[in-house]
Structure formats: C-alpha cells, structure tokens
Amino acid sequence: MTVFFTQKGNKIMVERIQLILKTLNLSPTRLADEIEVQRSSVSHILSGRNKPSLDFVMKILSKYPEINSDWLMFGKGKMIATSEPEKELFENNREKKEEKEKETVHLEVRSEDPVPYVNFSNKRIEKIVVFYSDNTFKEFLPG
C-alpha cells in the first residue's frame, strides 16, 4: 500500500527521513538493514524516485518508537515523541528527584567506552538514551 503524497509532500517526507538518519547517525544502508527492507528501497525513496509506502513508514515507527508518528507523517509536533506534556514531565522529575538519587549510580561514559552493565539484584540496564537540547539523541545499549 502506498502513502499518497503530493510531489511537495513527498519531498517533505524525504526531508524528515533524512533528518531521522542524521539524528540517529544512520546511513541509508543501515536504516534499510534495521527496518528490514531492501537497500534499494531506501535509496529510491531518498532520491525521490519512489514514494514511501505505509509499510515502510510503519517499519520506521516500529523500529524507532521514539519517533513521533504525527511528525513523520504530517509534520505535526516534535520529532521525538513524549508520553507526557513536557511541563508535566519536568514537574514529575522534580518531585521524584530524591527517590531517584537513592537509586542513581553515577557513571562516566565516554563515547569510545562500551556501555556499562550495572546489576541491581534483579534489575539490569536495557538501554540508556541521552537527549540533547537540539532534539537529537544518542542511544547506548549494553554489550
């Protein structure tokens, strides 16, 4: 099934996909491999030759759930989805700060270091996501 975009709409969708590549530090080849589509499909979409299908868009959203679907499809909102309004999120963080400080382990992680594995009895780190003020982020996975 094809997502029907006007010529201008398709160009804007391509720009959003390119921004995802830049933000996630992905090459078109790696994106294709990660969302399990042919590499030529990504190339043809980025060149404007083909329009992205609904399946293609859904694979991006499935692999990268932090991407806001409204932003990707319609340009509404921010690229990175949040589960709560930002104001509420900051208020909740402020209220829970003392609780979290008790559980917090301060680790220094340099980009060239492997992601540390910390075991809290039955808890383990699955991933660490660092969000930057320019709406980019970096995800670190253990191992």
How is the topology of this model organized?
Blueprint: H1 7-23, H2 28-35, H3 39-47, H4 54-63, H5 69-74, H6 86-103, E1 119-120, E2 123-124, E3 128-131, E4 137-140
Antiparallel strand pairs: 1-2, 3-4
Helix pairs in contact: 2-3
Feature tags:
mainly alpha, 434 Repressor (Amino-terminal Domain), 2 domains, two-stranded antiparallel ribbon, two-stranded antiparallel sheet, 6 helices, 48% helix, 8% strand
Q: Separation of termini?
A: 38 Å
Instruction: Name the CATH architecture of the largest domain.
Output: Orthogonal Bundle
Record the strand order, biggest sheet. 1-2
Helix content: 40-55%
CATH class of the largest domain equals Mainly Alpha
Q: CATH topology of the largest domain, what is it called?
A: 434 Repressor (Amino-terminal Domain)
List the secondary-structure elements in sequence, H or E.
HHHHHHEEEE
Number of strands: 4
- What multimeric state do the chains show? single chain
In DSSP terms (H or I, runs of 4 or more residues), the helix count works out at 6
Rg from Cα: 18 Å
What's the CATH superfamily of the largest domain, by name?
A: lambda repressor-like DNA-binding domains
> How large is the share of residues in beta strands?
5-15%
- Form type: globular
